[in-house]
Every structure is written in structure tokens, then in C-alpha cells.
Amino acid sequence: MKRFADALFQTAYLSLVTLFVAFSVIPVVVAVVLSFDARGFVGPFPPTQFSLRWYDRFLADSYYHDGLVTSLVLATSATFIATVVGALAAIGLHHATFRGKGLIQAALLSPLVIPNVVLGFGVLIFASRLGILDGMTRLMMGHVLITFPYVMRTTAASLVGIRASYYEAALSLGAKPLGALWQVTLPLARTGIIAGAVFGFVTSFDDVGVSLFLTDAFTFTLPVAILAQMRANLDLTIAALSVMFIVATVLIIVILDRVAGLDAITGRGVYGR
Amino acid sequence: MRRPSLSTALLWPALLVMVPLLLGPLLLLAHESLKPFVGGRIGGDESGALTLQNYAQIADPQYVRYFLDTFRVGLLATAFALVLGFPVAHFIVRRAGPTMRRLMVGGLVGTLFLSIIVRVYAIAMTFGPHGPLSDFSRLFGISASSPDGAELMVVLGLLNSTLPLVALTLIGTLQNINPRLEDAALSLGAPRWKTFFQITVAMSLPGILSAAIIAYAFCISNLVVPMLVGRGFIVFVSNLIYFRFSEVANFPSGAALSMVMMVISVALFYGLLSLVRSHWQEAGK
Amino acid sequence: MIQSVLDLQHVTKRFGDTAAVDNVTFEVARGEIVALLGPSGCGKTTTLRMIAGFEQPDEGRIFISGVDVARKAPYERNVGLVFQDYALFPHMSVAQNIAFGMKNRGVPARDIAPRIARVLEQVRLPGIEGRRPSQLSGGQQQRVALARALVTRPDVMLLDEPLSNLDAKLRLELRHEIRAILATFDCTSIIVTHDQEEAMGLADRIVLMNKGRIEQVDTPVGLYQRPQTLFAADFIGHANWISGTLARRAAEAGVVETKVGGIAVAPGAVADGPVTLCIRPERLAIVAADAPADTRLAAVVERLDPVGADLRIWSRLGDGTLVQSLEKNVGRALPAPGVGVTLGFKVADCIVLPADGAAR
């Protein structure tokens, strides 16, 4: 009886894992296959003939190209600002002893919880009140707001793993607090900061909720461009574009694994193998 | 040696950047939400007296429906994410070899990093009318073109995003549970399924709840999924806010909706999280 | 007068309402090795952190080489610190770790490499400059940590539980090695430990602490042979306890009335009244009924525990008190459990302690 129940359990367990993998992988495969569809319309799956026509169309479209440039510039600069400011703040909070530390931390992380649409709408009103009508500036404001918490949170998490004795050892060896941070704490928190910056970059690059409010006719991000195109006509250019995204994501993951290690994201745990 | 001056100095740049960026928009939103709406102009009436009519409007059953839809669909997606995500996290932590683990964690992070538009598009293509899995909804006795079909698509879209979120959070939880405890239960004669539920799941409960809260916060603030696959049958509050802005330019109403949604999100997140934390600290875990 | 390198005067540190360190005063002479010994939470680590500058005392003064450093930052004192977990910077090589302190203390660049080589020779790890801390064994890490702290020639060396992260065998080896290295540098040192053997083996003097206060400051031998409080007698080594009431004229030999009869004691400073007698197990012996001994007590053997070369014999006195005595296991005939014996000890081996101590 026990064995039967266990076999049943084992089957259910493995089915759920398989279902998970299938659900995660199949749509990606479908999108990749469709991107090579030779038909000029969205027809039944699988395609009968293959071509690169959707890639040609997507590469020739300056609309996407403009969006991509904007997104890259925006994500890079927003991440840069958020990383510098966020990593410093995480280190400052880590060493802080004053009251209200928890509250400041919660407040600085709150953009993670507040719906992006609310943030986007708010920044729009704020920018117009300040007389800022330039799309890039507005987008930058919104994107620093949403990338900052990722860098701060990941850096803070990596600081927890750094023994306090390293910092104290540096002080006892004659380093001043700033020197100890620069020479010891910062290098040790490096992987956390890099992982946070990557998370921040991806968040900024993928953002829709904030950007929808802040773009203007001349400055729009790639996701906003795609969204506009999707609502205009659901052709397979998007599939070709998706493949580009997938390739880029795989590259980011490989680089992240090389530079920081994927374990920087999940940790190894107390009983890590 | 803690030097308060240094830690404060490191905080200042963040406070200078983030406090205006956070407080400015939120205070202005709060102010905007109290202005009367005048049709035909962008932004509320500046000269008019402040009013609560924008909030009163939200109490209308017609609006309450959007909130209920948001919360219900979010709950469904979160529940499915837990059921699927927990075994996967467990598999990665306890059973997968180093290569398998790396591959699966890489896949989870990759899914998380992949543009949500791309993911929802891929799901729409897979489960949509011409997709290879277009018959999936029939398993639930739902017609794909019905409102329920739209809801299923939204759930699937949200699930695709919440799954990696839940699985990665639970990997963190499970890693910190002593595997010897499972061995101990087995050696005491408990069958595997009992061990799984009475030891592993029970001990992960704080982590499971945290993962659920994170996933739920993500779901109820989502904009893209209902926009792309909700087909107007499923409209989240986020969509409503965007609609107020883009289609009818009713800023005061959008602001009021934003305030309500923000309060609910923040209260749900921090409230539930602190509840989970205090409960499990009392229990001595 | 001996010149003291380190001088703590009435140092007090409170965390909230509790005083972690309470009115602590002691001096350390040049070249001396002093152990701060006590159970966890006795304030020894807080004392060390105050000397290092990581905590500031609420009251009292700390002099290093005659300068009051109580309000100075860690980097403004010339103190070398070896952490319990060594705290070797994992992202730096051995050479970079050792160079760290010299760079911060303004050692000219051309002197740094030769000094690294020299100090590594002194800790008997020559040629490992390029290794990473993670490539070293625990014992090697310990010695690199020592080298890193010693290379800047600190006024005072502080070692926080230096051997607690090593296994038992290595601990014994390294204990001698640390002593030798510290002697080479003629370095005034403070060693914080909860391990009495470590303190006894490493230190010239021991500062025994309990609940934030100093119980006794003495040499290792003095602390064992002449404990002044119940806590000191209990914490160091094993002891037998007999309580009673002391009656005598001041500064003369007296008698302690106990449940097992009157016991003669030597003249001492303890006032008349309730006292506790402490007799070390190796000073208590099973004697022939007519053998000469200052004090004899009748007892019944209860159990024999072999402890290596020795034998620990547990016997019960007339009032039910369980006592232990240590016999050399040299093949002599031993009493079987249940047999009545006579236990004897000398007046000089019976330590009189005031009974109102916290221990026991």
C-alpha cells in the first residue's frame, strides 16, 4: 500500500516537473519555428515552408531600429545611475545603526511593489509639473525609479553573506572606513552588484508599464514599438523579433553565469552541495 | 566600528535621487485624484475645489468588477504557480545534478529575463486559434473564444511570468532546509509522499507564502498580459488606469484608481509579509 | 616599575541595561602574553573589541603605550588583530593580504616585498606569496593571519579565539607555534579564549572574567592552585566541594565544621562564617587507615573511570557528597566499588573559599 502511494506520488511529482518544463519550453519553440514561416499570414501550425522573410521585414523596419536604440541607451544609462546610487545605498544601510533604517529600506524598495502603471502615470504628472516634456528625460526618471530597487536589493543580499570581520580586519590594519569599503567590501560584493545591474538592465529594457506613459512620438522604447505594431497587425515579424530577444536573453544568461555565476542569484544555501 | 557619518554619506545620493522621484509623483497623483474632472481637457480642473467624487466613482459595482477580476485571476495564476513551482524547485535543489541544476536555473532566469511581450506573444501563438495547443482550453471544458477562454489565456500568460519568480524564491527556501530531516522521516518509516508534505512542504511554508505574495503582487499589477490576450473580457485595474490616460484623458479618475491600487498593493505586500514573518518568528523558526 | 604597554582602567561597556564589561582594570607589560579567559558572554570579546577600537567604552580609559586611545578609531591605533575566522581577504593573494596593513600604515613601497618574504619565513610558510586564502589549510590560514597582523609591528597583538576553528590535534601543535612566533616578535599580546587549556598553555598571565567582571588575575599555576573565588576554582580544572562553617581567630589556622566532621585549614584571608572547601582530585588520595595524612574522611567507592594514564575514582562521603580522586594507573591493587576506604589530604591542599560565590 505504501509502495503504491509512493509510486503514485512519484508519478505526480515528475509529471508536474515535466509539465513545468513543457509549459516553459513549448511556446519558445513555437515562436522560433513560426519566425521561419514562409506564409504571408498566420496559418495553422506547423508551417509548411520556411523562409527568412520576417527577419528581412523586421531588419528593414526603422521603427524597431529606433526603438531598439532608445531602449539600449535608456537601459544602459538608467542602470548605470541606479547601480552607482543603489550599491552605495545598500552598503550605507548595511552599516547603518540608526533608527528608521528598516523604514528607509522599505521605502527605497517600494517601487518593486507599487504597480508600474501607477509609477508611470505619477512620473508623467510630475515631469509635466516640472516642465519636463522631453521624452528621454521623462523615461530616464521612470527607469531609474524601477531599476534602483533591483540593484539595491541584490547588493544588500550579497552584503549579508560578507562576514563583518573582513571590514573590521581592514580597519585594524589601518584602513580608514572609506578605504576599507573600497578595497574590501566593494570587491567582495562585486558579484551581487553585477547581478543586480543585470536584473536592473533587463527590467528597464523589458519595461512596458512605465514607458507607455512616458514615451512621445519621437522617443519610444522597443517594447512600446512592438506593442503598437502588435495592435496594428498581428504578423510574424514579431516572431522574428522574439527570436532576437531569445538569443539576446540566452547570451545574457551565459555571460551572467560566466561573470557572476548563476548561484549569485539563487545562492547555495546553508546545506549547499 | 560603525561610523554613522559614513553610512549616512553613502545613503545621501540615493535619497537625493529616489525621494523626489518617488514622493513627487505620488503626492501629485494624490492631489490629481482629488480634482474634479472636466471633459475635453487633459488633467483635472486646477481652479475647482477638491472633491472625493473620483473615489466615490470607484465604489460603483461596474468598477468593483475590475478589481475583483484582477484579484481573482491573480489568485488563480498564483495558485497554479505554487503547485507547479514547488516540485520544480524541489527537483532542482534535491534531485538535479550540477549540470541539470545549472540548465534549469539558467532556464528559469532566462524566462524571467525574456521580454514579457515576447513570452505572451509566444503563448498566444501556441494556445491561440492556429497554435499547436489550441485545443488546450477544451481540457477544462472551455471554448477558446469565450470570456472564460480569454481568462484562461490571461492565467497562462501570468503563469509564465510567475513560475520562474516562484521557483527561484522556493529554491532559496528549500536550500536552507536540512536534507537530513527528510532522510530522518523516511528512516522513521514515513512514505515519500508523507515526508514530502509533512516535512518538506510544512517546513517551507514561510517561503511558500512569501513566494505567493511576491507572485500575487506581480499578477495584480500586470498590464501587458490582459492587454494582449484578455481580448477585452479580462481587464485589470492597470489596464483601466492606462485606458483613463490614453483613451479618455481622465487624469483625476486614473489618479484615484492609481492611489487605490497602490494602497492595496503596498498594504497586501508588506501586511502579508510582516504577518508571515511575525507568525514564524513566534513559532521559533 | 615594569612599563605597561596596555593599561585598562575601570573600563565599562553597557549594551542597553546590562553591563557587558563592568569596571575592568588590568595592565599588560611589554612582551607579556595575557589570556582573557571566561565562559561565553563573560565580556572577554567585548573587552578585546574595545582594545581594538570596534567598540567604545562607556566609562574608563584604555592606554596603549601611554596614550589614551579609548575614543580613537581602529585605524588610529597600532593594534594587530587576528580574528577567530582569520578574516583573510578572499579576493586577495597572501602577499596582498600581508601588504594591506603596511600600505595603510605608510610603509615605503620598496620595503613591502622583502618584509612579506621575511614575515612568511618567520611564520614558517616561505614562498606562498601568490596563493589565495582558499588554497590554504586552516593552520596555514591561521599563520598567515598572524603574519598579516605582525608585519606592521603593532604595539599590542590581539588574538580572538585563535585556535577554535582547528581540530584538536592541530590545536596542540599550533599552540606551541603561536607561542614561539609571538616570542620571536617579542610582541605584547592578548589572547581571548574560553578554553582553559589554551589559556594555560599560551599565556604568562590569565585574566579570568565572569559576567563582565574580573574574577582573578594570576599566573596559570597560581590560578589553579590559589583560586580566590568559587567561580575561579570551578572554571579551572576539576574540584571536590565540601561546604561548612569556618571558625578561628584571625590569621591563624582554624577548623571548618562540616557534615563529615571538622576539617583543619591553613591560615588565610577568608573571614569566619559559611565557606566552601575545594580539594583538587589529584590532591585527594585513598590512603591506608593508619597512614599519615592531615585530614581523613571515610568514604565508599562508587565507580572507577579510566582516563588515559590515570584513574578517576568516585567515592561517596558519609553525608552523601560525591567526590573524585585521581590515581596514577600504575598497576597497584584498586578498591572495588562498594568497598569502604579512607580518603586523605593535606591541610595545604584544602582551599578555603567564601561560600557566597555564584558557582555551585
TrEMBL record, chain A:
<feature type="transmembrane region" description="Helical">
    <location>
        <begin position="178"/>
        <end position="202"/>
    </location>
</feature>
<keyword id="KW-1003">Cell membrane</keyword>
<feature type="domain" description="ABC transmembrane type-1">
    <location>
        <begin position="68"/>
        <end position="256"/>
    </location>
</feature>
<feature type="transmembrane region" description="Helical">
    <location>
        <begin position="234"/>
        <end position="256"/>
    </location>
</feature>
<dbReference type="InterPro" id="IPR035906">
    <property type="entry name" value="MetI-like_sf"/>
</dbReference>
<keyword id="KW-0997">Cell inner membrane</keyword>
<comment type="similarity">
    <text>Belongs to the binding-protein-dependent transport system permease family.</text>
</comment>
<feature type="transmembrane region" description="Helical">
    <location>
        <begin position="12"/>
        <end position="36"/>
    </location>
</feature>
<keyword id="KW-0813">Transport</keyword>
<dbReference type="Pfam" id="PF00528">
    <property type="entry name" value="BPD_transp_1"/>
</dbReference>
<dbReference type="InterPro" id="IPR000515">
    <property type="entry name" value="MetI-like"/>
</dbReference>
<dbReference type="GO" id="GO:0005886">
    <property type="term" value="C:plasma membrane"/>
</dbReference>
<keyword id="KW-0812">Transmembrane</keyword>
<feature type="transmembrane region" description="Helical">
    <location>
        <begin position="208"/>
        <end position="227"/>
    </location>
</feature>
<keyword id="KW-1133">Transmembrane helix</keyword>
<feature type="transmembrane region" description="Helical">
    <location>
        <begin position="68"/>
        <end position="91"/>
    </location>
</feature>
<protein>
    <submittedName>
        <fullName>ABC transporter permease</fullName>
    </submittedName>
</protein>
<dbReference type="GO" id="GO:0055085">
    <property type="term" value="P:transmembrane transport"/>
</dbReference>
<feature type="transmembrane region" description="Helical">
    <location>
        <begin position="103"/>
        <end position="127"/>
    </location>
</feature>
<keyword id="KW-0472">Membrane</keyword>
From TrEMBL, chain C:
<dbReference type="InterPro" id="IPR003439">
    <property type="entry name" value="ABC_transporter-like_ATP-bd"/>
</dbReference>
<dbReference type="GO" id="GO:0005524">
    <property type="term" value="F:ATP binding"/>
</dbReference>
<dbReference type="InterPro" id="IPR008995">
    <property type="entry name" value="Mo/tungstate-bd_C_term_dom"/>
</dbReference>
<dbReference type="GO" id="GO:0022857">
    <property type="term" value="F:transmembrane transporter activity"/>
</dbReference>
<feature type="domain" description="ABC transporter">
    <location>
        <begin position="6"/>
        <end position="236"/>
    </location>
</feature>
<protein>
    <submittedName>
        <fullName>ABC transporter ATP-binding protein</fullName>
    </submittedName>
</protein>
<dbReference type="InterPro" id="IPR027417">
    <property type="entry name" value="P-loop_NTPase"/>
</dbReference>
<dbReference type="Pfam" id="PF00005">
    <property type="entry name" value="ABC_tran"/>
</dbReference>
<dbReference type="Pfam" id="PF08402">
    <property type="entry name" value="TOBE_2"/>
</dbReference>
<keyword id="KW-0067">ATP-binding</keyword>
<keyword id="KW-0547">Nucleotide-binding</keyword>
<dbReference type="GO" id="GO:0015697">
    <property type="term" value="P:quaternary ammonium group transport"/>
</dbReference>
<dbReference type="InterPro" id="IPR050093">
    <property type="entry name" value="ABC_SmlMolc_Importer"/>
</dbReference>
<dbReference type="InterPro" id="IPR017871">
    <property type="entry name" value="ABC_transporter-like_CS"/>
</dbReference>
<dbReference type="InterPro" id="IPR013611">
    <property type="entry name" value="Transp-assoc_OB_typ2"/>
</dbReference>
<dbReference type="GO" id="GO:0016887">
    <property type="term" value="F:ATP hydrolysis activity"/>
</dbReference>
<keyword id="KW-0813">Transport</keyword>
<dbReference type="InterPro" id="IPR003593">
    <property type="entry name" value="AAA+_ATPase"/>
</dbReference>
<comment type="similarity">
    <text>Belongs to the ABC transporter superfamily.</text>
</comment>
<dbReference type="GO" id="GO:0043190">
    <property type="term" value="C:ATP-binding cassette (ABC) transporter complex"/>
</dbReference>
